[in-house]
């Protein structure tokens, strides 16, 4: 990683200090002539005159004026070719990176091979599996945070020092700092805790509403029962009064009958 940063810094610095080189023949002030059959490029405007004289005294003069302009022709500088890096074999877990930059009077190119650790991990896992070491093959794949998280999500936790299944999961839960996906694990754990807390608060709020509703319903029922009891009590008292009146009336009638017989 350090070498990569150095390479990127050098290339960026060279690109920043690079200046374009321009070739321009429009404003060329050099005097050029055409003599003795030599042919030299003339830039800008030029005039040619041809005079023919015949023995009969006739003279023919031809004048031709030509204007030629070359607008800002670009003259490229020499390019710096990046070195070619190849693994030279499909069984090598490496990757070649190269770059180059060129400027006026200076050019540079650099390159390097980088190990593909994920490719190495896959090849080692295949070799272990071919040797019959299936748990070891899974264990080396579990060094990748993505594989570790996927195994846990699938309910088949990665092995832990000879432990597999629930026993391995218990150890990963006990020592979460040793997980290869520990940072992602913390983010997920915080998110789960936050969501669980929000759910608990919402449940408590709904439970409080339910209890308050039940209290109101109970109070209403008690009020209705109270009214019923009061009604029954009033009815009972009325019945008692009626019975008392009837009893008194009967006693009065009996007394009259007795008095009549006397």
Characterization of the model:
- This protein is α+β, with helices and mostly antiparallel strands.
- The strands form two sheets. It has a two-stranded antiparallel sheet. Strands 3-4 form a two-stranded antiparallel ribbon.
- Helix content is 52%, strand content 15%.
- It has helices spanning 2-17, 117-130, 134-141, 145-153, 166-174, 182-261; strands at residues 44-53, 59-68, 94-103, 106-115.
- Helix 2 packs antiparallel against helix 3 (134-141).
- Strand 1 and strand 2 (59-68) form a beta hairpin.
- Among the domains are: 1-11 and 93-115, no CATH class; 118-180, no CATH class.
- Mean pLDDT is 74; it is low at 19-44, 54-58 and 66-73.
Layout of helices and strands, plus pairs?
Blueprint: H1 2-17, E1 44-53, E2 59-68, E3 94-103, E4 106-115, H2 117-130, H3 134-141, H4 145-153, H5 166-174, H6 182-261
Antiparallel strand pairs: 1-2, 3-4
Q: Whole-number average pLDDT?
A: 74
Q: Give the oligomeric state of the chains in this entry, treating copies of one chain as homo and distinct chains as hetero.
A: single chain
- Helix/strand/pairing class, anyone? alpha+beta
Number of strands: 4
**Taking strands numbered 1, 2, ... along the chain, how are they ordered across the largest sheet?**
1-2
What order do the SSEs take from the amino end to the carboxyl end, as H and E? HEEEEHHHHH
Strand percent estimate: 15-25%
Low-confidence regions: 19-44, 54-58, 66-73
Sum up the structure in keywords.
262 residues; alpha+beta; two-stranded antiparallel ribbon; 6 helices; 4 strands; 15% strand
């Amino acid at each position: 990683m350090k070498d990569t940063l150095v390479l990127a810094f050098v290339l960026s610095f060279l690109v920043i200090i690079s200046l374009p080189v321009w070739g321009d023949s429009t404003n060329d002030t050099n005097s050029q002539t055409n003599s003795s059959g030599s042919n030299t490029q003339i830039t800008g405007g030029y005039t040619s005159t041809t005079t023919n004289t015949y023995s009969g005294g006739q003279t023919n003069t031809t004048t031709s004026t030509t204007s030629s302009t070359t607008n800002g022709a670009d003259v490229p500088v020499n390019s710096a070719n990046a070195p070619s890096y190849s693994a030279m074999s499909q069984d090598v877990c490496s990757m070649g990176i190269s770059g180059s930059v060129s400027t006026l009077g200076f050019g540079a190119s650099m390159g390097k091979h980088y190990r593909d650790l994920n490719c190495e991990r896959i090849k080692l896992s295949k070799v272990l599996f071919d040797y019959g070491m299936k748990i070891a093959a899974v264990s080396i794949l579990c060094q990748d945070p993505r594989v570790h998280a996927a195994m846990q999500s699938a309910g088949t936790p990665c092995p832990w020092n000879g432990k597999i299944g629930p026993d391995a999961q218990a150890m990963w839960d006990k020592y979460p700092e040793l997980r290869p996906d520990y940072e992602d694990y913390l983010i997920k754990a915080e998110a789960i805790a936050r969501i669980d807390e929000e759910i608990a608060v919402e449940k408590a709020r709904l439970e409080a509403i339910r209890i308050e509703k039940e209290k109101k319903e109970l109070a209403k029922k008690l009020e209705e029962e109270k009214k019923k009891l009061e009604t029954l009590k009033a009815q009972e008292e009325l019945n008692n009064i009626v019975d008392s009146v009837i009893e008194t009336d009967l006693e009065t009638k009996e007394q009259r009958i007795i008095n009549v017989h006397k």
